[in-house]
Amino acid sequence: MNTSYFDEIIESAEFIKERMSIHPEIAIILGTGLGNLVEQIQIHKEISYKLIPHFVPTTVESHSGKIILASWAGMEILILSGRLHYYEGYSPQQITFPIRVLKELGIKKLILTNASGTVNPNYSAGDIVFINDHINFHPENPLRGLYDPRLGDRFPDMSDVYDKSLLNVAAQCCKELNIKYNTGVYFGLQGPSLETPAEYRMIRLLGADIVGMSTVPEVIVAHNCGLKIIAASIVSNSSPETGLQEKTTIQSVIKVIQNSSLSLFNVFEKLIQKI
Q: How far apart are CA 90 and CA 149, in angstroms?
């Protein structure tokens, strides 16, 4: 990271500001299979990543790759519809660049979503899991590189990353809506290959509940930026103990996620009204 990286952040943010007159304080990143949120919101403006200076395009079919300004539950929000992944060949700085831009746009609270596998036998496909901690097994840290103090602390403390007050509000929303939820530890891998049975056993032994190929780099940078963070997974397949014979495909993942997405969206709709 150097001065030119910071200048790129400013240039991207100015490009978006010129095209979006409202600047909300809440942003949502939509994970695999969750792009159907756009059916429940009022869209004011959307810009493709391909048009924004210094953004790189999404290459995964289920991630549309655009930033959306919208109204939801009476609140103005920004949505990143489609995320970037390390397995697409991008650097950690490239995949987390949109987070830096969100900060420059005035975002203060970030809601992240993803699809995840589970190694916890108490979780089932379709369950909602709010992340309360993570284990980072990505090969590179997005903060690696030349230090620029304008981007945040060189050595950010990671002992309290997922905002407890937001987690408490989310839990209350679930109870009010009578929606089952879990909290757990997310294990971040680079992908794109799924885990072997031995890797599933390792992940569980190391203390995680769910596993996926995103979110952790974004969370590290969002925390470095000073954003308040809440992250939710929808479990896409059963644990090895209960579903080892199942073959996971992107089609099966998207089907499970879409079937459970309405419940998660209902929680978030109530959440953003409360925060």
A: 24
